[in-house]
């Protein structure tokens, strides 16, 4: 799950410290724990990563799927936009990955997003540029990727052509 929070033309991004020491800037988000509803999990992740409390979420803005055949896994992400939020930025990440969070103007967002994997950077950049692809059969734009390689530093990522639904 991923969350898009905006404030007067700025977008909230968080700095994630990866195991290999790299920092990736992304919108806040994370995994859905067993027993959680997806948007409830997204609200929890945003609160942990930023200290902000989201009051509501839009329907999905876009979806991302990444197939990792060399790791026998697939990643599916649904991204929503916050309809309202309150509080101040205070990082309380129990996973101790997020080390910074801030609202940034589009030019800085594009620069920071370049540190993220293509399956994060390209969709967010398209959204910021009002250039999301045509919606799929379910009415939601979809980004699909194939990532070959067994470690993050050696991944070769290919964006796949949009398919039906």
Task: Tell me what the structure shows.
- With 165 residues, this protein is an alpha+beta fold.
- The chain has a single domain, classed as Nucleoside Triphosphate Pyrophosphohydrolase (Alpha-Beta Complex), CATH 3.90.79.
- 19% of the residues lie in helices and 40% in strands.
- It contains three helices and nine strands.
- The protein has helices at residues 38-50, 106-113, 118-128; strands at 2-4, 6-7, 10-17, 23-26, 53-68, 73-86, 98-104, 142-148, 156-160.
- The chain has a five-stranded mixed sheet with strand order 1-6-5-8-9. Strands 2, 3, 4 and 7 form a four-stranded antiparallel sheet that branches.
- Strand 5 (53-68) and strand 6 form a beta hairpin.
- Helix 2 packs antiparallel against helix 3.
- The longest helix is centred in the N-terminal third of the chain and has 13 residues, at 38-50.
- The chain is globular, with a radius of gyration of 15 Å.
- The two termini are 19 Å apart.
- The mean pLDDT is 93.
Task: Give a brief description.
By secondary structure, the chain is α+β, with helices and mostly antiparallel strands. It has one domain: Alpha-Beta Complex (Nucleoside Triphosphate Pyrophosphohydrolase), CATH 3.90.79.
The helix count comes to 3
Distance between the termini: 19 Å
What do the pLDDT scores average to?
93
CATH classification class: Alpha Beta
